[in-house]
Amino acid sequence: MINDYSSAEAAIYRAARQLQQQGRLAEAERNFKQLLKSRPGDVNLLLDAGNLALRAGQLTNAVNLFERLLKLKPGHFGALCNLGQALARQGKLQAALDCLGRARQLEPNNPAVHFNIGRTEQEAGHWPAAAAAYEQALALRPVYPSALINLGACLHLMNRPQEALQCYDQAVAQEPGNSEAWYARGQLLQKLNQLQAARQSYQRTLALQPGHAQAWYASAFCQERLGQPRDALACLDKAIALEPGLAEAHYLRGRLLFAAVRFDAAEESLREAARLKLADPDLLCKLALIHMSRKQWAAALPDLERAIALFPSYAYAHNLKGIALLKLQRDQAAIVSMTRAVELAPRAGNYLGNLGLALQETGRFAEAADCYEQALALDPNLADVQLNRCLSRLLAGEFEPGWRQYECRWEALKSPEPDLAQPKWLGEQDIAGKSMLITMEQGLGDYIQFSRYLPLLAAKGAEVYAETPAPLAALAGSLAPGLNIVIKGLPLPDTDYYCPIMSLPLAFGCRLDSVPAAVPYLRPEAPLAEYRLPAAGRPRIGLVCSGEPTHFNDARRSIPLQLFQPLLDLPYEFHLLQKDVRERDLPALARNSFIRRHRLDDFMQTAQLLEQMDVLLTVDTSVAHLAGALARPVWILLPLNPDFRWLAAGEQSPWYPSARLFRQSTAGDWPAVIAAVELALREAFPISA
Questions:
Q1: SS3 for 35?
Q2: Is residue 689 over pLDDT 70?
Q3: DSSP β-bridge partners for residue 262
Q4: Per-residue pLDDT tens for 40-52?
């Protein structure tokens, strides 16, 4: 061709080819354009210029050049092949196939034509046609790794995985340094769940191409499934360093860190995945769970709303939203969300159990009990639901099944049952002349309530050892003569039997009409001078507005001190009988400086002060039990869904005859309860004009 050129044209042509080889495509293109002005009908020049445009990604220009050539020479094989490739890259797949088909008619034994037809059919989603073209290419050229890789991909998509794997194995055998073949092989093995083999293929990929971010990510995926989270995290760090926008890598990293309870780092990765527009509702649910682990219930809601917007039928997101709303005491909204979760996943027993809990918080006790029964019919092993069912029975006064079922509590409360050598006693054996260890569990109030059984054990002839929390040790000695107090945390004695303290009602067959309620059963020593109050000229009122902040139901049972203001305005003498005061209550305490506070180191001191009160006003906490055990007048302010021991209704307690119960009639409505208490105080302690 160049022999026909003038010396100047030949120089321009040679320069264009050299520039093309050097990758200086724009400069090469200018030279070809210059030549085409003087030689517009030069077929070979049009082919070279078209190939350059194709290489440079100038697809429109390439198509124009090849079409000009084909007008001059309709049967030009190279132009048909390259025009087909250019059209395919433009997405004009049928036009591309037409060109390539004409090229195949010209040279039916050219493997490259069959390969390009296969690649175009593959891009069009015509897997069988693509596979047939690749097979034809391989029949003409058996050593053809690219065709084997693409054929493997088609067979993979056609659900012929073993044939696909054979193709990849042949490809890596023909060209061991082909990283694309190793990567494709790993992808297939991963889908076949042959994770160790897949990981090995990815390692070969990375040995050949260390900058392959997707291979680092895929290797991490396999390592996670193989139980190697640290190795997986190291691979993900490599993937993200190479390709910071790889959303899937950030997501997997977040999942691994979440599983490792490294929530701050997990949140960072998950947020980055979300920022990169990874639309995955489970990702958003994990972000919500991180907030929920910090008790940031309101902060969890936006992520859950986004998850539900992405996937309205995602029951898990509706369930989590219901839990967050319940913690925020938005009970009716929680019921709506949990009901939706149950509708979407009717066989998810835990969702039914959560709905039951929400219904119970709104006082719908019978419906809640039905939910618990349905949940356990679906999955009898739901420990939390088992516990809630038995607590609902105890709340309803169904003590016989309730105490028996309460033995399920250990797993649900995530508190292991005592691992002791001696057998557990639940009332079956005669214990006269035997030694009995009563082990401590749960809270101080629980110990006070059920320590009433310790004298009954002694009455059966047992030598009783009671594991006792230190703040109650001095007071517990008054329960029965000869009672052996073992301070909690010290070594436990070897006895004939043991019984957890909250299993004693079961062991004694406690029914609603047989509660041992002889009070007082605790008796304080005479107070030291510090705890002897002078004679009062007006009613003396004890006050406890909050319990232990870590209690699971503290948000519903504790009351801000400021809500007691209508009572504090009455002309009585008030004593705050709780050891700690919350920061939120300090302003109200400052406004009511007449409230007396006392140094309380143990329950003996609290009991001595209670003996001098006309009445104790208290939320559901250990001091309420202490007052009841001392037979002191105690008015207990209860949420709509109270703890099981207070039963679901009524003003009296079978456990404490001196107690009077004031209940919410609407969840969260403490002002109404305070108003009822104020009226009762005015009646009990009239205020003179």
A1: helix
A2: no
A3: none
A4: 888 888 888 888 8
**Range 529-552 average pLDDT:** 90
Q: How far is CA 431 from CA 87, 454, 498, 503, 506, in A?
A: 94, 13, 11, 16, 16
Please give the structure tokens belonging to residue 351.
Answer: 């969702």
CB 56 within 8 Å of CB 34: no
Contact 404, 369 (CB under 8 A): no
pLDDT score of 449 more than 70: yes
Judge whether 435-514 and 534-684 match in fold. Answer: yes
* Residues in CB range of 197: below 8 A, 6 or more apart: 189
Using CA atoms, how far apart are residues 368 and 355, in angstroms rounded to an integer? 7
More reliable by pLDDT, 601 or 118: 118
- What is the signed CA dihedral for 67, 70, 74, 75, rounded to 10 degrees? -110
CA dist 106 → 50, 70, 85, 345, 554 (Å): 20, 14, 17, 61, 84
> Secondary structure of 257-274 in the HEC alphabet?
HHHCCCHHHHHHHHHHHH
Q: How far is CA 457 from the centre of its chain?
A: 45
- Give the span between the Cα atoms of 417 and 410, in whole angstroms: 6
Could you please report the per-residue DSSP string of 580-640? ---GGGHHHHHHTTTSEE---SSHHHHHHHHTT-SEEEEESSHHHHHHHHTT--EEEEE-S
pLDDT band at 122 (very low <50, low <70, confident <90, very high): very high
Query: To 5 degrees, how large is the angle CA 414–CA 418–CA 424?
Result: 125
Segment 227-282, tens digit of pLDDT: 999 999 999 999 999 999 999 999 999 999 999 999 999 999 999 999 998 889 99
Closest to 403 measured CA to CA, from 255, 492, 509: 509
Please state the rounded mean pLDDT for residues 443-457: 96
Joined together, the tokens standing for residue 326 give 């319940």
Q: Distance between CA atoms of 105 and 74, rounded to whole angstroms?
A: 13
Residue listed under structure tokens 């084997």: 148
Pick the CATH number of 534-684 from 3.40.50.2000, 3.90.550.10, 3.30.160.20, 3.40.190.10: 3.40.50.2000
The mean per-residue pLDDT over the stretch 627-636 comes to 98
- Segment 170-183 mean pLDDT: 96
**In the CATH hierarchy, which top-level class contains the domain 435-514?**
alpha beta
Query: What is the model's pLDDT at position 2?
Result: 64
How much is the mean pLDDT over the chain? 94
Residue 574's DSSP bridge partners are 541
Q: How far apart are CA 248 and CA 273, in angstroms?
A: 7
Boundaries of every domain in the chain: 435-514, 534-684
Q: What span, in angstroms and rounded, lies between the C-alpha atoms of 62 and 26?
A: 14
Tokens of 64: 């124009």
Cis status, amide bond into 520, omega within 30 of 0: yes
Helix-, strand-, coil-residue percentages of the chain, each rounded to 5: 60, 5, 35
**Dihedral sign, Cα of residue 309, residue 311, residue 316, residue 318:** positive
| Cα R_g (the chain), whole angstroms | 40
Q: How many CB atoms lie within 10 A of CB 490?
A: 9
Residues contacting 338, CB < 8 A, separation 6+: 318, 319, 322, 326, 351, 354, 355, 358
Residue 1 has what pLDDT? Answer: 58
**Greater model confidence, 69 or 44:** 69
Predicted confidence at residue 19, as pLDDT, reads: 80
Q: Give the Cα separation of 449 and 18 in Å (integer).
A: 96
pTM of the prediction? Answer: 0.82
439 φ, ψ to 5°? -90, 145
In angstroms, the CA 469 to CA 482 distance is 18
Q: Is residue 348 within 8 Å of residue 371, measured between CB atoms?
A: no
Phi-psi region of 246 (alpha: psi -120 to 50; beta: other; left: phi over 0): beta
